[in-house]
Amino acid sequence: MRKKYYKIGEYNCYTYFTNVGKGYEIGFCFGKKTIFVGNFIHSKEAVQYWGYINREIRSFGKKYWIGQNVSTTWYNKFFTNYLYTNYYKFLDKLFFKYQKTYTTHFKKDYNRYMKMRKHWAPTNKMKFKVAA
Question: Does residue 26 form part of some domain?
Answer without folding.
Answer: yes
